[in-house]
Write a structure and sequence with these properties.
Uridine Diphospho-n-acetylenolpyruvylglucosamine Reductase, domain 3, Vanillyl-alcohol Oxidase, Chain A, domain 3, single chain
Length: 600
């Protein structure tokens, strides 16, 4: 048995060096490796907050080690409350001193600078130790947790009581407060939809208050309180959420089958597919003209099966394999080797489909479809977070301490009424440049998840399809990407031509240009913001820009369009010294994209 296990680990390790797919979707995506050892050790991600002197003189970044503009965010100190009472005291002290504050989480998965306080004198309040399960009410089917509890722990505790969160992101390394604050979601058009914040029935938030109220107070919001529609998706600008109560359901089983098809009728199929299958999603490989449909529905609780979804991208990955794969992609980019990317993409995505993306029928091996199992075993995963330290021999694929994934992510939702036209526009680009999107397929294509309209003021405005697009980012900010113009045109098609709503916790700067104007209740949100924090102590220049209170969400400088910091309007934005210039799009003529002189 011992020899067999070692052989499995060694052979899978070799396979991981050869077969890779990159998939960073529900959190911000990860590289896919086929590393199936029965016993796995991994180095968990490091704390995104680093301080040079105890808990003072600190910096903060995201879990990928880099914000879109590559800036470093500073704070004078970090505070770690362990109770709501301590949290109130900390907020009151900062309000008394008119000190800027930002809420930070254990994993910091948001790509934009939502966690950055203003300047260098602000304070970080981490929810790392606000991580207790407060109450599970079986009769009411609710769970109350502190805001630093992870999605993994919530799912586990609910299951112990025979309960389940019906819809959630696929990555369990998110805190409940963090995923609510950025609008994280799963995939469904059923019920109240796939956004976790739409299942909040009660919320406690610590916010600034007048001196006579002690400078800070706890606001308790239930479903009858209109302010809940602002607080349950707030970008962290109203205060610090201390507790959340979520509505659950009785535990149930699901049945999952992946079906690969030609994408010729994808635009026709997407709307009906979402209404037909409760948990359905679609992974689209545009350069291969293929779409993989996840047929995912509830089945009777007595249906046979104890399936498990240990999603391959979220497992520990050998650091050596990560380094080899990143080096290969760097070489392909510098050499303009589109053929190499296309060959790799086809091989790896085919292998992923064959391996059922990490589904197993019994927690050990995949034998056949459908895979049937309990909701808590299928809805989310993230085993690279939970293993022991191993000196970075293995890691999460995006861990910035090793040479691994480094990428951009563009994520937006497009209304079902026009999504067919968007898909057909992307297909036109593929016809014009058949190799242009192989780079996306290397990162496991485009993940398409269903989202429903929400009563949250900054939530989804209509039933829509969310597109998660992950792609190579150079370590050199002035270095253009292979077929950069094609991906930029898709980004501008989605965001501007079709009015896509950007995911608040992902995206490059340009996606937020004018975004607040797309929300019909934006003014209601801003009124609540003024009511809760009139001095803007929980706001920053960046959040003010996102919310349209200040100009400057885009940054205009030489080479800015290469990193999505601006939309190119002159060649200097595209780094002409390296042979790039600014031109109109090939399908969406109003787009302005960076392209190589050879294609001028």
């Amino acid at each position: 048995m011992q020899m067999s296990t070692k052989h499995c680990c060694f052979s899978r390790f070799l396979l991981s060096l050869h077969l890779v797919s990159r998939y960073r979707k529900a959190l911000a995506s990860t590289q896919v490796f086929l590393f199936f050892c029965v016993v796995v050790f991994s180095t968990p991600p490091e704390d995104p907050i680093k301080c040079s002197s105890g808990n003072t003189s600190c910096t903060i970044t995201n879990s990928y080690g880099m914000f879109p503009d590559r800036s470093i965010c500073h704070a004078s100190q970090v505070l770690y409350p362990t109770t709501e009472q301590e949290l109130v005291s900390m907020v009151a002290s900062a309000v008394r001193g008119k000190t800027k504050m930002k809420v930070a989480t254990r994993f910091s998965h948001s790509i934009p600078k939502l966690v950055c306080p203003e300047g260098q004198n602000g304070v970080l309040i981490s929810t790392r130790y606000l991580n207790k399960i407060v109450k599970v009410d079986v009769e009411a089917r609710t769970i109350t947790v502190e805001s630093g509890v992870t999605l993994k722990d919530l799912i586990s505790e609910a299951a112990k009581a025979g309960l389940a969160l019906p819809y959630a992101p696929y990555w369990w390394g998110l805190t409940i407060g963090g995923l609510m604050g950025s609008g994280a979601h799963g995939s469904t058009l059923w019920g109240k939809g796939s956004s976790v914040h739409d299942y909040v029935v009660n919320l406690r938030i610590v916010r600034p208050a007048a001196p006579q109220e002690g400078y800070a107070k706890v606001e308790i919001l239930n479903q009858q309180h209109e302010d809940l529609n602002a607080a349950k998706l707030s970008l962290g600008v109203l205060g610090v959420i201390s507790q959340i109560t979520l509505k659950l359901e009785g535990i149930f089983k699901r049945s999952i089958t992946y079906v690969a098809k030609n994408d010729s009728d994808l635009g026709e199929q997407v709307a009906s597919f979402g209404y037909e299958h409760e948990f359905g999603d679609i992974t689209w490989y545009p350069s291969q003209r293929k779409a993989v449909y996840r047929v995912d529905d509830r089945v009777p609780i007595n249906a046979s099966g104890n399936g498990l979804y240990d999603f391959i991208p979220f497992r520990p990955t050998p650091s050596l394999a990560l380094a080899l794969l990143r080096t290969t992609e760097d070489v392909q980019e510098s050499a303009g080797d589109a053929d190499g990317k296309c060959i790799s993409a086809k091989t790896t995505t085919t292998t992923l489909v064959t391996s059922a993306y990490g589904l197993t029928n019994n927690g050990v091996i995949f034998t056949r479809y459908p895979v049937i199992g309990f909701q808590n075993r299928l809805q989310a995963s993230g085993t690279c977070l939970d293993s022991l330290k191993d000196a970075k021999i293995t890691a999460c694929a995006w861990d910035s301490r090793v040479k691994g994934e480094f990428f951009h992510q563009t994520t937006f939702s497009i209304g079902l009424s026009v999504v067919k036209d968007f898909i057909e526009d992307v297909q036109k680009l593929v016809e014009l440049e058949p190799k242009g999107l192989c780079g996306l397929d290397l990162y496991n294509g485009i993940l398409m998840r269903y989202v429903k309209s929400s009563n949250a003021y900054l939530g989804k405005q209509e039933d829509a399809l969310d597109f998660d697009i992950t792609y190579y980012r150079s370590k050199d900010p002035m270095s253009p990407r292979l077929y950069e113009d094609i991906v930029e045109e898709i980004e501008q098609l989605g965001i501007f031509k079709y009015g896509g709503l950007p995911h608040w916790g992902k995206n490059r700067n340009l996606a937020f240009e004018g975004a607040i104007k797309k929300y019909k209740n934006a003014e209601k949100f801003l009124r609540v913001k003024e009511k809760y924090d009139s001095e803007g102590l929980f706001s920053s220049t960046w959040t003010d820009q996102m919310l349209g209170l200040k100009d400057g969400v885009t940054i205009v400088k030489d080479g800015c369009a290469l990193e999505g910091l601006c939309i190119c309007s002159q060649d200097s934005h595209c780094n002409p010294s390296r042979g790039y210039y600014c031109r109109a799009g090939k399908v969406y003529k109003e787009a302005r994209v960076c392209t190589h002189l050879k294609s001028k």
